[in-house]
Amino acid sequence: MKKKQPLFKKLMYLPLLLTLFSLNVIAQSPVERHGRLQVNGNRILNASGEITSLAGNSLFWSNAGDTSDYYNAETIDFLVENWNSSLIRIAMGVKENWDGGTGYIDSPQAQETKIRKVIDAAIANGIYVIIDWHTHEAELYTDEAVAFFTRMANLYGDTPNVMYEIYNEPINQSWPVIKNYAEQVIAGIRSKDPDNLIIVGTSNYSQEVDVASRNPIIDNNVAYTLHFYAAYRPHDNLRNVAQTALDNNVALFVTEWGTILNTGQGAPDLQNTTTWMSFLKDKGISHANWSLSDKAFPETGSIVQAGQGISGLLNDQLTTSGQIVKNIIQNWDTPTTTGPTTSQCNTIECIRNAMETAQAGDEIIIASGTYNFEDKIKGAFNHNVYLYGSANGNSANPIILRGANAANPPVFNGLDYTDGYLISIEGDYWAIKDIAFTTGSKGIVLDNSNHSTLQNLIVHDIGEEAIHLRDGSSYNIVTSCNIYNTGRTQPGFGEGLYVGSDKAQHDTYQSACNDNTIENCVIGPNVTAEGVDIKEGTMNTIIRNCIFSAEGISGINSADAFINLKGAYGFVYGNTFNVDGSSVINTGIDFLDRGTGFNTGYRNAIFNNTFNLGNRASEISTARKKQGSPEQTHVWDNIRNPSSLDFPISDGTENVVTPSCPVWNIEPCIPVAGTNEAPTLSFQSPVNDITLVEGYNLQIEVIANDTDGTIDNVKLFIDNNLVRQINVTTYKWGHSESPNTEELNGLLEGTYIFKAVATDNEGASSETQFTLTVIAEQNPSESCNFNTPSQNGLENFNAKQFSNVYVLGTGGPSLSNLRTFTINWISEYNGLYQFSILTDNGIPDYYINLKPKITFQFQNANPELSISNSLIPNLDGDYWVTSDNGNFVMVSKTNNFTLYFSNDTTAPTCNMMRSTQRNETIKINDDSSINLKLFPNPAVDDHIFISAKNENLVSVKVYDLQGKLLLDQNEDSTLLKLNISKITSGTYVIIITGTKSKKHSLFVKK
After folding, report:
1. For position 180, which CATH number holds?
2. Are 947 and 1006 in contact (CB under 8 A)?
3. What are the DSSP E strand ranges found in 559-679?
């Protein structure tokens, strides 16, 4: 996107005297001015809600021995006073094969002492400081990173100065690997510091921010790292990559950039550096230059001449790159002594100048009269425009452009209808009101402008559309505007208001123009296309309380409706639509699916509108399906004058429209007196999705009620195939009183949808469903030892993360608060790089690094580990370890439990009763009877069912895994509902005895 020359480029050429004077008269430091930084969408804002872009230097590797030491307060003091730096980055070297053991892993105390000098100096000077974990393989040191950043957060988390860059430059690591590492470090930081900014590196030397943006980290204050080198021209494409990430609504931070090649060599490229700086300034992105050092060849990107040390910095002995960088940083955010200003304008020149230099809080007041433009300037996307604004206001201080007298608004009059937008706005938080716009190709265009307001505007005699919200413009309000006489040169494109862009333009303009409101406007007459056209890719558009006239609509380019709804979650209500004698208008509102697969033709609501149709009521439908396969379109409670059907024409629209208020509606669905409410129903048994083994015996019970009538019937379907309809008040299937007790049984392995539909006495219906997963019957293994001790070493677990743990047996740890368990074991290096737990409640901590708490032998036969001082009850002890189908298993050597770490949603099937522990009283001859069944397993509530086929039950006994008898019940039937409420969650052995056979099985109570 092209904008006017950024202000900082002009400031670069101001006399040095003016710069120094302006610096001296400002008392506020950068942190005093901005406060704590916070990500908001794809921008980083200060404490006042203003977009904030910082500029400063990155120090060189802290563990390097081939450069002078700039890690001291003298360096920071000088940069703040003489370079106007607002930022310093600490590049704390972690571990490199060239560092001689000076990196953090080998010399943690020395490194921490070194960097804290810089952190403390930055805080004292009121600038921001990035603490960077400077390595290309951070995931190898996850535990150390978590411990380090948690400690830094504890020390500095209450100061707004500090930011955490937790991974400098991954190289070949995939984003999932980086994200897994980052989430663990972030958990540690957030346990001590809930709100300071965290910066995360991205793949391929922190260049693939677009990949990260498609699967972002869940945290409300995270930005993503972008690195570039201006002289390396393939990096030019990174601006497109960055724009993609911004379009995906993530924030970026350039923690390294250079004027030279990415190899550290070559001459600076001033022209491309300037292009890059314009991009960063335009997008509000902060940056730190690489690097503050005096390293000799090949580091032509060093800012101090080779070997000149701290005195070289103090005496301005800079490289060519250093001179360029100093000039940029000095003038990046030159403070001014003035706050918001009010401009009283009665000339075009005054208006343009005030808009060009506008800042948050400015008010531009325009005297009444007609302003006849004689030339055009460049606006967004290099379009010809008459007025242009790119500055950003904020929520507390918008930029206001208004007429001095709302009753006698100033008139902006362009030269012709064919070329030139009357006003182009790219900044956020603009308030434009009490002005008339006429004679332009377009009237008002917002490009990537958010939280702006267009109020009490008159827009007429326009070549194409009057108002266009484009290129991601979101959260805007258009209110009390009067629009008429559009489409003077292109009637088919003469919409009153246009939100978003056609799918053919999505490569040029961002499609996601969301959360915009159009209200209290008068649209027409002589609006030659639709009054409002909501495009595909948009969502949450509100059109309410407006008055539309169809007089003058052209019909060209299929324009024969008041409104086109092509997005998702469009809400049209409280409007008045007047046909006004038009013979062209053919429907009230068109709804379309444009086939883009994203936010198109989905969940649109049309209600409480009034359609004054004249003598065409029999020809004009309230709404019309025009294209594609739109879903969940609701049309209800609209008034048609004269009174007539919503859909007088049989075109198939009625088949895809629901004539009632949906639960997702923007306004509460209030029942109207005298109308029928749909019944309610729910599954009583089972209450949730269930998994059963082949040969199961299933029973279903449904509860149905109707508050304003009676239930006529309830039907049960399996995969939309009717099982049976019940017309009485007890709704049960598969029970002993059912006509066919086997009606739900016999399904083979697979997944099935069970749906119940209740219909009341007036024909209204409701439905609910659950999923049954049938699995093949599994033969339980002899024990939950999983063949330990293993005769082989432990297979690799390469940064493997598990979200579930099953404690099989008794006496083991609870681990019910486990969020994730991570093991990073590489056998060929005999390296255990991570062994840790994340909890969801912080007990005993959010991040528990178990690696220092264990001794282990994983590489050879009989792999094992011992845990001590873990602070987790019942976890300490000795274990055999093994792998089971990719799951990590720990078998206690001395106690009767096994820890099974897995991502499966069901526990493994095994028998925890070891042969040396079995009570002789429960030894039986198990014939694996197919006649005796147990379900559900795992048990999801306080009951399980035991059934017998071709025989009767005799007894059921339940034992714990030490052989203690817990339940003993005699029975003489074919079905038993066994109450297990008195036993706790865990794994148990059940013995079912029938008149012909016995069954010995394991079951789990959740």
Report:
1. 3.20.20.80
2. no
3. 561-565, 568-573, 576-578, 587-592, 602-607, 610-612, 621-627, 631-636, 639-641, 657-658
Asked if residues 449 and 476 have their Cβ atoms less than 8 Å apart, the reply is yes
Residue 976, pLDDT score: 84
**Positive or negative torsion for Cα 366, 369, 375, 378:** positive
The amino acid at 187 = A
- Domain-located, residue 390: no
DSSP letter for 853, please.
G
Whether residues 83 and 181 fall in one domain? yes
pLDDT of residue 298: 59
CATH number of the domain encompassing residue 947: 2.60.40.1930
Angle formed by the axes of helices 142-156 and 175-190, to 10°? 40
* Rounded Cα gap, residues 977 and 216, in angstroms: 48
For CA atoms 390, 395, 398, 402, the dihedral sign is: positive
How many domains, in total, are found in the chain? 4
For position 674, what pLDDT does the model report? 63
Are the C-beta atoms of 734 and 700 separated by less than 8 Å?
yes
First to last CA, the chain: 56
pLDDT mean by block of 10 residues, the chain; 1006 residues: 30 36 56 94 90 96 92 96 96 94 95 97 97 95 93 96 97 92 93 95 96 93 97 90 91 96 89 94 95 80 93 95 95 64 96 94 96 96 96 90 97 96 96 98 97 98 98 96 97 97 92 96 98 97 98 95 97 98 97 92 96 96 95 96 94 92 88 73 85 80 86 90 86 86 81 90 87 67 75 87 88 88 85 84 83 91 93 94 91 91 83 38 39 76 82 82 73 84 78 80 74
Q: Of the candidates 331, 352, 385, which is a domain's last residue?
A: 331
Q: Are residues 976 and 841 in the same domain?
A: no
Answer yes or no: do 144 and 65 share one domain.
Answer: yes
What residues are annotated to the active site?
169, 256
728: exposed, middle or buried (Cβ count in 10 Å: 0-12, 13-18, 19+): exposed
Residues 949 and 815 in one domain: no
> What does the alpha-carbon distance between residue 186 and residue 197 come to, in Å, rounded to a whole number?
10
What's the confidence (pLDDT) of residue 966? 80
Please choose, from the candidates 891, 893, 901, 994, the residue with its C-alpha nearest in 3D space to the C-alpha of residue 949: 994
Task: Tell me what percent of the chain is helix, strand and coil, each rounded to the nearest 5.
Answer: 15, 35, 50
Residues 71 and 152 in one domain: yes
Q: How buried is 29 (Cβ within 10 angstroms: 0-12 exposed, 13-18 middle, 19+ buried)? A: middle
List the domain range (segments joined by +) for residue 879.
797-902
Q: Cβ atoms within 10 A of the Cβ of 829, count?
A: 10
Q: What is the pLDDT of residue 612?
A: 98
Q: Which residue has the tokens 């995931």?
A: 139
CA distance 216 to 224: 9
* Beta strand 721-726 pairing with 287-292: unpaired
